[in-house]
Amino acid sequence: GKHWTVNEVRALIRIWSDKNIQQQLEGTVRNKRIFEQVAARLQKFGIDRDWKQCRTKYKNLKHEYKSVKNAQDSGSTSRSMKFFNELDAILGHSTMEQASKSDN
């Protein structure tokens, strides 16, 4: 597919950071409908991506974030990624919440 621009990724992350979208994504595996919503919202920003592209980009960002985070947790500072802070704001807290839930 066509390469995602910085602005497109920013827009995707902005939509993803919507609490409503996050809750839907956390609660389901069959998420085509959610990504159709995401794609529709991107369209409003003038970004033409279908739900599959959105889902793939979401998965890739999430995967990259996790590997950077794991590297950092093990003391390595060499790995980093664009948008790490934005993703950390979304994903960092959810992993913390899950950790504290399993403690109780």
TrEMBL record:
Q: Which domain of life is it from?
A: Eukaryota
**Myb/SANT-like DNA-binding domain sequence ranges:** 2-90
Stored InterPro entries: Myb_DNA-bind_4
Q: Which PANTHER family does the entry link to?
A: HEAT SHOCK 70 KDA PROTEIN 14, MYB_SANT-LIKE DNA-BINDING DOMAIN-CONTAINING PROTEIN
Q: From the Swiss-Prot or TrEMBL record, give the protein name.
A: ZSC29 protein
Q: Which organism is it from?
A: Alectura lathami (Australian brush turkey)
Tell me the organism's taxonomic lineage. Eukaryota, Metazoa, Chordata, Craniata, Vertebrata
Report which gene this protein is encoded by: Zscan29_1
